[in-house]
Amino acid sequence: MRQQRCLLCRVGVGNRGERRDQTDDRAEKATLLSGSISIAMNTTAFGLMVAIPLLLIHSMLRSKTSAIIESLEIAVVKFLNLIEESPKAQAAPRAAKPEA
Q1: Integer Cα distance of 86 and 80 in angstroms
Q2: What residues contact residue 12 under an 8 Å CB cut-off, 6+ apart?
Q3: How many other CB atoms are found less than 10 A from the CB of residue 9?
Q4: Across the chain, what does the average pLDDT equal?
Q5: Does this model's pTM top 0.70?
Q6: Distance, CA of 94 to CA of 50 (rounded, Å)
Q7: Per-position b or e across 29-66, b if 16+ CB within 10 A of its CB
Q8: What is the 3-state secondary structure (H, E, C) of the chain?
Q9: Which of 66, 90, 86, 88 is nearest to 78 (CA)?
Q10: Within the chain, what is the greatest distance between any pair of CA atoms?
Q11: Phi/psi class of residue 6: alpha, beta or left (left: φ > 0; alpha: ψ in -120 to 50)?
């Protein structure tokens, strides 16, 4: 009976040791997980800090380029209208003058 007790004590100690290892392993996993979550949150925050101002700058630049393109289109239309009117204006006086 005494040997059985020692055997049970050894098994009990062994089980307790394994549980400690599992507990340490769980604590280590929790620490690793919390560190990973922290890194992910910091990365997300940094990404938003960069993305939001760049989105505003992009919007501003896009509106300015749209305004420039629109003014260039108006200038091209005016220039084409001027070119179309020039031959008509030159042709009209010639037609009015009788040639002798």
Answers
A1: 10
A2: none
A3: 10
A4: 80
A5: no
A6: 67
A7: eeeeeeeeeeeeeeeeeeeeeeeeeeeeeeeeeeeeee
A8: CHHHHHHHHHHHHHHHHHHHHHHHHHHHHHHHHHHHHHHHHHHHHHHHHHHHHHHHHHHHHHHHHHHHHHHHHHHHHHHHHHHHHHHHHHHHHHHHCCCC
A9: 86
A10: 148
A11: alpha
Read off the tokens for 99: 């040639």
Token pair, residue 19, equals 């549980």
Express each pLDDT in 69-98 by its tens digit. Answer: 999 999 999 999 998 887 666 666 565 565
Q: Which two tokens stand for residue 41?
A: 């949150």
